Amino acid sequence: MSPTQWDFPVELCCRPMAFVTLTGLDVVYNAVHRAVWDAFCANRRADRVPISFKVLPGDHEYPKCRPKRTSYEWYIPKGILKTGWMNKHLNLVPALVVVFYELDWDEPQWKEKQSECATRVEIVRQSLQGRNTKVAVVLIQKKTPLPPGEDVTASERAAALCNACELSGKSLFVLPHTDHLVGYIIRLENAFYEHAQTYYYTEIRRVKSHKEFLNKTTHQLLFVRHQFKIAFFSELKQDTQNALKNYRTAYNLVHELRAHETNILEIKTMAGFINYKICRLCFQHNTPLDAIAQFRKHIDLCKKKIGSAELSFEHAAWMSKQFQAFGDLFDEAIKLGLTAIQTQNPGFYYQQAAYYAQERKQLAKTLCSHDFSSLKTGEHYQQCYLKNGSKNSLHASVTYPNPDPLETQTGVLDFYGQRSWRQGILSFDLSDPEKEKVGILAIQLKERSVVHSEIIITLLSNAVAQFKKYKCPRMKSHLMVQMGEEYYYAKDYTKALKLLDYVMCDYRSEGWWTLLTSILTTALKCSYLMAQLKDYITYSLELLGRASTLKDDQKSRIEKNLINVLMELYSVLVQNESPDPEPDCDVLAVKTAQKLWSDRVSLAGSNVFTIGVQDFVPFVQCKAKFHAPSFHVDVPVRFDIYLKADCPHPIRFSKLCVSFNNQEYNQFCVIEEATKASEVLENLTQGKMCLVPGKTRKFLFKFVAKTEDVGKKIEITSVDLVLGHETGRCVVLNWQGGGGDAASSQEALQASRSFKRRPKLPDNELHWDSIVIQASTMIISRVPNISVHLRHDPPALTNEMYCLVVTVESHEKTRIRDVKLTAGLKPGQDANLTQKTHVSLHGTELCDESYPALLTDIPVGDLHPGEQLEKMLYVRCGTVGSRMFLVYVSYLINTTIEDKEIVCKCHKDETVTIETVFPFDVAVKFVSTKFEHLERVYADIPFLLMTDLLSASPWALTIVSSELQLAPSMTPVDQLESQVDKVVLQTGESASECFCLRCPSVGNVEGGVATGHYIISWKRTSAVGSVPVISTAITLPHVIVENIPLHVNADLPSFGRVRESLPVKYHLQNKTNLVQDVEISVEPSDAFMFSGLKQIRLRILPGTEQEMLYNFYPLMAGYQQLPSLNVNLLRFPHFTNQLLRRFIPTSIFVKPQGRLVDDNSIAAA
Amino acid sequence: MAVCVAVIAKENYPLYIRSIPTENELKFHYMVHTSLDVVDEKISAMGKALVDQRELYLGLLYPTEDYKVYGYVTNSKVKFVMVVDSSNTALRDNEIRSMFRKLHNSYTDVMCNPFYNPGDHIQSRAFDSMVTSMMIQVC
């Protein structure tokens, strides 16, 4: 954009730097000079001194210095600050002029060169006459200079040169052209900088010195001017603290000036300049709060200084500029490291600038249009004005003043902020009111060519960028709305719509309906003016909806338009009905729009608009509700679609259709205007397809679910409502799922919280809020009509073939087909149970590991009504515990629903928990031949194995047989035949067996010696013959076998008789490999006399046996203690008599003396 | 006195909003809406700590050229926003504070009404007249 009247001049906004001119450099043709110049100006970094350099020819004419005024007595200033002044001191009047001259100290033609140099200096001095500008000379030398003091010629010649050029020694420099050019240059410019500072210092002193001549009445303007100059020179001197101080003083002085309509613009302009400088310096000094405070003060002071009412738009423009400039300064400071906060950031200033720009536009609109009342056709003017946009075209209708009062002789103003047609006139009275009028007219006409919207939009978008940074999403949205509206005014409807559409959802999601309505209204206008059908329809839909806060008359107008748009292509009667224009639209734009609308008719192309409603709030609400959360497959699925319109007038629709996740059902759920709509149960002939505002309409649909969908969920994926006609133009409102739009979830929440009692409605009408969406349902199988009974005798016994009788009886009215049985262990139980449970249909043979735990789909054929069938199942449970068994009967049956024959698959299942127990407990014990309990057995010595079988079954058991399978280490002493064959055991009864065994000597075996197995074959007594016998093997306990050195056994009769000889023979067997010395003694007993060796010591060879024969003579009858045999083994002291007692009897029954003879005598007697 | 008084629900939709009828109503709606940015920020800055003892009055939310916007948030995150004319220097922080307290009390009365469903727009005559009194009191 080219700078406008309101933009600050460049010289104000730049950072003032000391101005130094370099002369005598030929930067075009001389490579050395070029290098020197480059070193000065190329790549100046921030750490270099702030100087702006310029190369000028030696004879350059500097601005003339006006003669010094000796008295201010008669001087009346014409304005505050001349427009050229800042530029003059920045770019025209140098602080220092440097004369470059190539001269070495050992120059042979020294004299000539010296005088040439002096001449050059003189020329420069001439053109700077009257100014305090310093002059310096730099000698460019080829040779590296010697250290100071060593080169005598050099110091002599230097002194001579200074003298010739009238220079002080401090102003003569030497620049050796060597490798370290940049280093020399930096030192040089530091020296220049010092000179420049001195220059500006003297300038400040000079300006200050004027002060004493001034008086407050006539020289008020000069106070400001001088203060400004001091501050500006301080800035050039880089003394920003003093600059700030002086600007502040200047600022206060500006406001002390007498303000009048004629000079208010000048005052404001200068105040704006000074304020800008102050704020800029405050930011530079890192005191942003001072900057903000100054700016606030500035605005508060100037806000009311509007000036001429006819040019009040100028004030708005100026205000806008103030804010914008401050925003720019603020933003710049942030880029340099300042931190802004949410509530204090540049965005606010840009925003305010935009507001003033808007105000300017408003004012310009009212103030600058009065000229056209005289015109015949305003539109014509506007058109030609728009086309050309320059004042030249105005001749046609309105005369732009000629000569142009805004033109000045020089093309620029002399003083900032003055009127071009009365420059330098300080009088508050208008000398020439006619001229003033013309001038104002010219300004007003010029204002017309300003593209205000562009300014406003730029400012707004600046603000948007800032607020985005400082976490103000709502502020951002608001500004974007304003941008959109501005684009609308600027007739850029596409951009307007884009912005408005973008922010709409923010307002919608937060439920600010008033704001949304306002945005939508603008958007609707845009879409109308562009004849954007889809957008037009969408916005209309929402503006008619419940979220809109429009009045009913507005709504009914929009509705009428919408209907027109939708009916346009359909009805022949309605001819070219483009919608009525939206109110407050530009007349010209409406013309264009009407053309566009009529073009739409002829335009082929898509006229079906599908609009998803989940993102907005349309005027038709929809809720879908299945009657039940699940339906049996032999019952039609029913659901209702509820519709409610919120628009002011009844609206017709042409089609309502529902889509499901299984698309095959879609065809059954359509209502169309043309069809008879047999699917609709409530056949309301009148107004069936019409929605009455505020009334809830219910549409009942039903369809027959597919048998494949049994067990699946049927979901409504979308509901489509067609407004308009599919043959012509129509809009399809598409609800995802079971209805609901952007606002409905919140409404549902509120409704659910409400305690309010709803007023009673007539029958078959519903409260909209009370309808709860149910968008899915399950299809479940038909209810079976059969009975399944299980007959069995629990508990099951381990490993038996447990019989389960399944009885299936059909109660169906027709034949059922394909009856299948699935039976066995219910899945989902412990995995170990599956391993240990087997199911079979055949009870005659035992099932093994290969049988499954669950038999699936056993076909059992068909069943006629009332018929029943029985199936035997055999279950073998390998472990005890409870198990769940499942019996699942499925069958097919043909049924008819809604005149449709379907094959239903029904099933019924029964589960039963069966406990498994051991049939019997087996106890085993080892006893000696004397039936004494044995902890351990002795090698080669017979012992007894006793088994005890205790029935634990509640049912009688038949022990078919039992068998003892001995381990190899065991040998039977006699026949091992079963003693319990065919024994029937009732509950609690037991059967015992006894086997005599011997265990040969084995080594020392850890844990004992295996005995073998005891196998019991059994079955239930009640079981039929075909049921197999179950063998239960019981592992017999291990037994510890011990070796003994000597075995003694006794041969003696089973009883004795008093006074009859009782021969007893003891066998002593040496079981060791050693010769054993044995001491044997027999202790006498009172009940016996005996003969035989009473005490003996003998040897028994390994493996041999010694017999000891005794003859006992019982003396008393009864159970008598035998004379005890004591054996003492010398080699085995542990062998005790205790142990011995286990093998040999210790007592014997003695019968009384026989009476055989006496009997005879008795008989004789 | 106040030129606009608004009650905003926890979910940031307006429960009640009233501005002086002579002015552009929409402008105040936007002003209240944009002030929620600052309210949100202030609430999140307060954090979860000290929920019981925290100050409900949020102070000046942001100044515009012509108006000052003040905020107040209840423990249930219902926000009160009040817009005051910038030129009205008579209103000090303390007055604003007490006005908010009055508003809060009146809002509590509304909530205590068993026929009022929390979250619905406030349509209470008592509340209305209290707001009216706040809007004309000093002017």
What does this 3D model show about the protein?
Chain B: Pfam families: Sedlin_N. Chain B: Its main location: cytoplasm. Chain B: This is Trafficking protein particle complex subunit 2-like protein. The complex is a heterodimer of chains A (about 1150) and B (about 140). With about 1150 residues, chain A is α+β, with helices and mostly antiparallel strands. In chain A, about 30% of the residues lie in helices and about 25% in strands. In chain A, the strands form 12 sheets. In chain A, strands 6, 8, 11, 12, 15, 16 and 17 form a 7-stranded mixed sheet that branches. In chain A, strands 2-1-3-4-5 form a 5-stranded parallel sheet, with helices on both faces. In chain A, helix 16 packs antiparallel against helix 17. The N and C termini of chain A lie far apart (about 170 Å). Residues about 370-395, about 570-575 and about 675-685 of chain A have low confidence and may be disordered. Chain B is α+β, with helices and mostly antiparallel strands. Chain B has one domain (about 1-135): Beta-Lactamase, CATH 3.30.450. Helices cover about 40% and strands about 25% of the residues of chain B. Chain B has 3 helices and 5 strands. Chain B has helices at about 25-45, 95-110, 125-135, and strands at about 1-10, 15-20, 55-65, 65-75, 80-85. A 5-stranded antiparallel sheet of chain B has the order 2-1-5-4-3. In chain B, strand 4 and strand 5 (about 80-85) form a beta hairpin. The model of chain B has no long low-confidence stretch (mean pLDDT about 85). The chains are: A alpha+beta (about 1150), B alpha+beta (about 140). The interface between A and B is medium-sized, with 27 and 25 residues.
Count of DSSP-assigned helices of chain B: 3
Number of helices of chain A: 25
CATH class of chain B: Alpha Beta
Number of DSSP strand runs of chain B: 5
Give the C-alpha Rg of chain A. Answer: 62 Å
How much beta of chain A, percentage-wise? 25-35%
CATH architecture of chain B: 2-Layer Sandwich
- What is the CATH class name of the domain at 1-66 and 74-196 in chain A? Alpha Beta
What is the share of helical residues of chain A? 25-40%
Order of helices and strands of chain B, N to C? EEHEEEHH
Tell me, rounded to a whole number, the average pLDDT of chain B.
85
Using only CA atoms, what is the Rg of chain B?
A: 14 Å
User: How many β-strands of chain A, per DSSP?
Assistant: 46
Straight-line distance between termini of chain A: 171 Å
Q: What can be said about the biggest beta sheet of chain B? A: 5 strands, antiparallel
